[in-house]
Structures
1.
Amino acid sequence: MDYFQYKNNVLYAEDINLLDVAEKVKTPFYLYSKKTILRHFHQIKEAFKTIDPLICFSVKTNFNIEVLKILKNSGAGFDIVSGGELYLTQKVKASPQKIVYAGVGKTADEIRYAIQTGILMFNCESIPEMRLMDHIAGKMNKTVSVAVRINPDITPRTHEYIITGKKETKFGISIYEIDKIIRALRTCSHLRLKGLHFHIGSQITETSPYEKALEKVIKLVPSLRQAGFPVEYFNIGGGLGIIYKKEKVSLPHKLAKKIIPVLKKHDLKMIMEPGRYIVGNAGILVTRISYIKQSLNKKFVIVDAGMQTLIRPTLYTAYHEILPLKKSIKTFKVDVVGPICETGDFFARDRKIPVVHQNEFLAIKGAGAYGMVMASRYNAHPFPAEILVDNDRFKIVKKAQTYRDLLT
Ligand code: LLP
């Protein structure tokens, strides 16, 4: 069930007429469907329920406080990568014992803050980081739980910029350095090894890269246990892909079938860090058409959102479906572009979209993950509003910024 559907030729989100919203709220704005968020979260939970997984929503995909609240109230934990994200999880009163903290560049201040908060575990990404954590924990008179993020040297099929499990990337500690890891753990008396972690990339549409990574990394478990480190958790990261265009995606239950038996066999509890899968298709970006411009050999639909609002097309040449809020049957071939003074400021190039006119509205789909969180204020455009739809109600959950906000 897609909660973004045309009814009487108008695009709806759940039971909300989006034309009504667009007439009331200044564009551009992001809009999220609560039902979609919950459906995706529960799909994952259901798929893995026989091993009672800890599903840590990856805050980096969408840190709107109401989105975090919805997930927290459904029992989600959180995967964080900064002190700022930790702060937001605490604002929604998330249990620290459901928080895992990854990232290659955690600062001493961030480490201290997370230890003080009492998070479940850090995902350590290097030996120098383990040493700094050990030092800080010692000073604070604490023992700190860690998982080691293993770089399994796996290359999933996805955009080059979002592959993270290949040996050339900066993430994790190489699978080939297990001896070094054991030696380091032996000297870090304030760290307790609780688990292993990998995150091989994002927008992964097949299960095979997970299977390969798991097959490689699981072999470390007996060695670590033998060395006296009772590994308890296995964290398979995030990465589950979604449909932007016509991708064939592997659904959570397919992944579960492959993962569950392996974890059961090794008596491991599972953690997972999905982000995009939960919120990606739960969000759209609504924008007003400022002009239709016919140039020599191209037609441009110029809208009031741009690369400052949603940077994915510019950064990864990512495809996002574009729909008019008022359904239209005929199509024309256009570039959909923003107002920013960069040629890379586009949402679509040479794409056939339904015929639209000046002052009408477009919805850019698949914008719930890595949308607002990657927005900037380039060319001094204040941040847009964020709206949450719940059945037949909608609420502005973050106000648009004003020009005055540009001063701070
Ligand atoms: N865990 C870790 C350690 C991560 O680095 C990430 C994403 C996730 C979980 C969540 O992955 P997901 O389930 O959302 O695939 N900005 C890019 C994606 C960057 C992904 C960064 N890491 C994009 O817009 O495609």
2.
Amino acid sequence: MSENISVLGLGLMGSALAESLIRAGHHVTVWNRTPAKADPLVAEGATRADTPAQAVSASPLVIVCLLDYPSVLETLKDVPLEDRVVANLTTGRPAEAREMAAWVAERGGEYLDGGIMAVPHMIAKPGALILYSGSRPAFERYEQVFGAMAASRYTGDDPGMAPLLDLAMLTGMYGQMAGSLEALALVRSAKYPLMEFTTELLVPWLNAMAVQLPQWAKEIEAGDYRTEVSNLEINRAGMENLVRAFEEQGVKLDLLLPMKTVIDRRVARGLGHEGLSGLVEEL
Ligand code: FVH
């Protein structure tokens, strides 16, 4: 079914979202602070709004994708939101999302927050995911529309949940990147071919290691960190070994040393028999 949808914010991501909605056959109204960014979308069939208020009045569903939450507040500050669903896909913090939900509700609107797990060129393609939280009725009303942009997943009525999960996913990604950069620096110091190392060794290894994460989830939820596989004492010795090897190769281990500190702390508490998942109690 074709819906009226307004998109506020036509940066790289907002433009990709608007384009996917136009291509799915919806009536899309677009607004951007710098008007020229709307031109390609208008050429594809979108309607241009001259002001945020004009854009919001054009559609019951308003998708917002701006730089940050202050820019969203600035954009919507004098705009009536009665009977509007505001789906704010701007990246932010859980506390900002909760404040924004209350702010929108005070103005008569329903609120959904969204965490985009994709880069612009992935929008409307397999692999793109958007996490939503906030008003369940609003999500259910527009679930099909959201499906044109990316796979969608509702994560609960706390508006802060989607941004929290978004940040959690990014945290996992940065951790993996930090370890991988250290690995690449070490391998480069020995002049081993980096392409061969990544494709044939590191990537399969990381994939094999990632399958243990659900087991960690089970242990953390149970608060039971006993292990027969690889306890903290073994990992402490492994980390010592890493530190020495990196020193000998002349490479800094700065991105990984905080993990060693936490392992040492837990072992010093007499918990060296536990598994790595127990480190969560130190955080
Ligand atoms: N691009 C990406 O890979 C990531 C993927 C994950 C999600 N993020 C988040 O999406 C939000 C928008 O990101 P973007 O890529 O579209 O960013 P830009 O291309 O830099 O566009 C920024 C838009 O925000 C407008 N804007 C900035 N400040 C204001 C303001 N004070 N009032 C009104 N609009 C404002 C800007 O307008 P203009 O500069 O064109 O006039 C753009 O429309 C973001 O939260 C990412 O973290 C993307």
3.
Amino acid sequence: MPERDAAELLRDAKRVVVFTGAGMSAESGVPTFRDALTGLWARFDPKSLATPEAFAAEPALVWGWYEWRRAEVLRARPNAGHDAVAAIEAHVPDTVVITQNVDDLHERAGSRTPIHLHGSLFTPRCSSCDRPAPPPATTPAPAGPHEELDGRLPPPSCADCGAPVRPGVVWFGEQLPTHALSAATEAVFGCDLLFTVGTSGLVYPAAEIPYVAARSGATVVQVNPEPTALDAVADVNLRGTAAQILPDLVARAWGDR
Ligand code: BJW
Ligand code: ZN
């Protein structure tokens, strides 16, 4: 289809899904995973940190790394892109935000109830009985020695069964939370416009979401400064950052700001 103006599409849309990845939070100072120089996987090995096997083998290494990341997120603030997503929700009440991010920046920008497909840094739980555990009251010092991977921190123990508490995120090889995946699927089937923002589209099953939207007749608009695996499924590719493109779209759709 010929490229329609994305602001016009937004103004006409009745049911919107905003599907976000790590690039959404990049301008808040939260690193992505796969960007060549700055991504987490350029500095850390995902197999040693983001798998259930890694946690079983080295719980203090994995817990310490996630506590360091939680501290970084607590210091970060939502950016203009997060604000624009909340503004879309205000203009189009039938908007659902589906995020792969484990930070809470959508919530802090005012998004109502974003669906967290890959869990959250703020919902630790028991690694054995699944009982939710409170996030620790203190977080590690800012520039921890994690570059050398010496930032070990023993995880707390479950109040019920004594097993180690684990981060509430979805690791490689784990199933996505059923309730999140079904709520996301329902929203995507019913939407007429889907924005995919700041995701490489490489991690499944989350990366299926734009394809499902396209197959069910929605228009797909991608916001990303780089080409991605999702370029082909997007009807409109907007090359730029979340904090540049999204506020501009909102302003052009409704004359805000
Ligand atoms: C900007 C920007 C700016 C920069 N503005 N943009 C099919 C084929 C092959 C493998 C598989 C398959 N299906 C499943 C798998 C296995 C695996 C997988 O997908 N592997 C691939 C990597 C090959 N999937 C899984 O294991 C999943 N589970 C599963 O499949 O379970 C099946 C099962 C069934 C039954 C029983 C048991 C299991 C789980 C995947 C969990 C992913 N977890 C992580 C870590 C979360 C915790 C943590 O934070 O540490 O989730 S991995 C990491 O990748 C994180 C992210 O949510 C996810 C996606 O990354 P994202 O958000 O796209 O970030 P990047 O860095 O990749 O991209 C950033 C983008 O932003 C770039 O495009 C930039 O250009 C852009 N950008 N600045 C806008 N300012
Ligand atoms: Zn327990």
4.
Amino acid sequence: MTYTRRIRCDIRGIVQGVGFRPFIYRLARRHELSGWVCNSSGGVILEAQGEDAALHLFVFAIRAEAPPLAVITALESEEILASCGDEFIIRESKGGEGAPEISPDWDVCPDCLRELFDPADRRFLYPFITCTNCGPRYSIITGTPYDRPLTTMAPFVMCPLCQGEYYDPADRRFHAQPNGCPLCGPRLTLTDSGGEQVAGDPLAQAIRLLAAGKILAVKGTGGYHLAVDATNDGAVRELRRRKQRDEKPFALMAPGLMEISRFALPDPLEERLIASPERPIVLVRRRDDHNLSPAVAPANGYFGVMLPSTPLQHLLLRENFPALVMTSGNLSDEPIAFRDEDARQRLGITADFFLTHDRSIQTRLDDSVLRVFQGNPLFLRRSRGYAPRAVPLPAGQRSVLAVGAELKGAICLTRGDRAFLSQHIGDLKNPETLASLEETTTHLKKILAIRPELVAHDLHPDYLSTRWAQEMTGIPLVGVQHHHAHLASCMAENGVEGEVMGIIFDGTGFGLDGTVWGGEFLVGGYESFRRAGHIRQVPLPGGDAAVREPFRMALSWLREAFGPAAFELPLPFIASLSEEEKKLFDRMIQRGINSPLTSSCGRLFDGVAALLGVRSAVSYEGQAAIELEGMAEQGGERPPFSFALDATESGCLCLDFSEMIRELMEALLAGHHRGTLARAFHDTVAHGAVELCAAIRQETGLERVLLSGGVFQNRLLAERTHDLLAARNFQVFTHRLVPPNDGGVALGQAVIAGRSRICA
Ligand code: ZN
Ligand code: ZN
Ligand code: FE
């Protein structure tokens, strides 16, 4: 026997602007239900009426068959009184103050891609083809509710054909806000660097110019790329020269996975990530026999590769280039250019031509960068395709704005049990980047309808983010210790509660005792923490100069291990110092002149890299450590070096690597393979860390260990540490949703502040 029921469902998550209402409409018709669906302030609500069994199947299918861009975080249904009517309709949005979640920008879907290359289709080769299942979202939204007038599509008036699709619930372009066609939508233009339009078809001409070795600025989803033919060595070198970028690897874009396999060696999981609709840059081991320019990624065993993520990029690459260099359109440290005028000014000297269009970008987004670690993505940079997707928090909390640290700036806003981590903004070392951070904050607050009750910031008094937070008035501030924030960030994304221990290995962070921390073993949770251990502190000769010149850290560790005799060791970077300089460094290190003490693990990696001859100076942060990891991957196995675990007066454990430095030095002078030594160094750090954790477990009984900090971008170290911990029955947690580096710090700050007892 069947009977009629009526239910009301409240659905939350990313359910607006992703074709959710037409999906519900079709689903309801399929199950012969009557009722309605509409956007609400927080998501989508619907009422459906029909036979009991059909309703069950309907509710089940909402989750099971949801459109590809949708993310359902909550679906609540209740039974209500049945009413009359046998139609199912899509009702107009209620509008008003919205608090939905915003979809990230996605690649072209297979349906649109097919049409793009179908000569019979009216959007054949149209670079702005899109539907409800694909295309730009976050980058074009100017306000909420997500509706065409509140996107950068507002100036484009749809032609009758496009309108027909837009208003037809059965069409896959029903309410596709960026909908358009060659008649009514955005158009491409190609100009030279002076702004003069180039005659002919912009796309065909752009392909011709790229093939001729020219540098093109190409407007993408969240900003401009600088593009050159990756097989053209002269062009790649010229781009390096003009961009003033000596060694940092360039990202590559290839038309398909097959083309990628000709110059790189992605494993199946890497392939899956590369081909995912988020379209990140994935670091993939490169082939030795590739035919791309060696200047793409000098001294690096990996290529950063991605597939096209806009129709324009598909059109540029397909059957034209095995790979293009697609590097962000900026000069060294500035944010990526995304406004047309600004791009023209800033990139005019770098690019020969501009391939651009008349749909503006509202939100600047860099490409996301990740590598694979133990079957999961490990974010190095979280941006396009992922931002501003929410990270679910283990519990609801007060609304917080967290402003992040200095390097790899990103902010975090929370609402209930959701944390919205912004896209990567860049290193906050100049006013432009800070301005970009402020803009992003204002925009995200608006479109997510969040009014924070607290502001969280780093304890470092000189970070631009800290100063900015301190300028805000009428809102309580919460200062959060840098490594505590790292720990909480990893806890939050893993849904971990209670007391844990954390290995936080990173470059620099302001310590509670005023020294530079960075090789930390913390015990605690969201509410509080203590420093249970750290890597032995050594002087950082010259402060920030030591970051740019890793040989200074090598001197510091060698001085620690060998005393004054360090300056007589037969190493090239020591031999190149004059007697004066040697005395100067000796004095600096001995007396701590302009040499703050640091426990930084990142600086330990720098020092060992210099010692093993990787390099004495770097052109970007982390370069020495990255190349050291590359060297270690070439090495063979040998037992780890010695290290010591001592208790300090404060009751904190100290992990001392000076013995390792002595043994490493002796082995190096005895002519051992550098790769093998580099590998053994990684191994030693992992063994040391695990011993220290074991000591903490003995004392506290804690079993859970979380790994965070930028040094854990190093896969070899992360893997070693993880495996050794697991082998000793620790429960290990690592980052999968946000970067382990400072790009993820804002999440931790937000949760610590949200759970603090500070009153708003
Ligand atoms: Zn599509
Ligand atoms: Zn049209
Ligand atoms: Fe950090």
